[in-house]
Specification:
Layout lengths: L1 E7 L5 H11 L12 E9 L2 E9 L4 E8 L2 H18 L1 H6 L9 E2 L4 H4 L9 E2 L4 E2 L1 H11 L3 E6 L5 E7 L5 E5 L2
Parallel strand pairs: 1-2, 7-8
Antiparallel strand pairs: 2-3, 3-4, 5-6, 8-9, 9-10
Length: 176
């Protein structure tokens, strides 16, 4: 597993890199392909530290965000969450061939724009690939998101939005 670590408004020390790499190596036993990239982004948000881990695999993407006071605790919790995601979805991943993956491209904006609540402060461009509703649920769960946009193969490739309702059921918005 190739591990890429970078910091935003934070200098990552060799000790921090070593600790994060050691912890992420635990996940190698779940990944058959040795040429997998794990991307870690550390950010400082006030006094809190935030870690975003993204691991794009062949047929899906693992992603987790964790916030905390201590760098090492944030790394531990994030790796534990990733391991739980893998174990929780192991059967579904083994029994179902997931056919698509969404890659996110993040665009940065000036900090003064982010302070204005009526402005769009983050944009994502996604490549929508066809999948059925079950695959969309799996992808949404693996990413840890509350919604997921996809081309619904059950509806002739029309765009659909899958979302988690307050009672933890799912809702689906479909293009007419």
């Amino acid at each position: 597993m190739n591990i890429y670590i970078r910091g935003e408004k934070l200098e990552i020390t060799d000790a921090m890199k070593s600790y994060a790499k050691e912890k992420l190596e635990r996940l190698s036993k779940y990944v058959k392909d040795s040429d997998v990239n794990a991307n870690l982004l550390f950010k400082i948000n006030g006094i809190k530290q935030k870690l975003e881990v993204t691991i794009p695999l062949k047929n899906f993407t693992l992603r987790v965000e964790e916030v905390g006071d201590d760098f090492y605790a944030v790394v531990d919790t994030a790796v534990d969450k990733l391991e739980r995601q893998i174990r929780k979805n192991k059967t579904r991943l083994e029994n179902k061939q997931v056919k698509s993956r969404i890659d996110f491209d993040f665009m940065s904006f000036d900090e003064k724009d982010e302070e204005n609540a009526n402005k769009i402060v983050r944009r994502k461009q996604v490549e929508l690939k066809p999948m059925d509703e079950e695959e969309a649920i799996l992808q949404m769960e693996l990413l840890g998101h509350d919604f997921y946009v996809f081309k619904n193969i059950d509806k002739d490739g029309k765009i659909s939005v899958l979302y988690r309702r307050k009672n933890n059921d799912y809702g689906l918005i479909e293009e007419e």
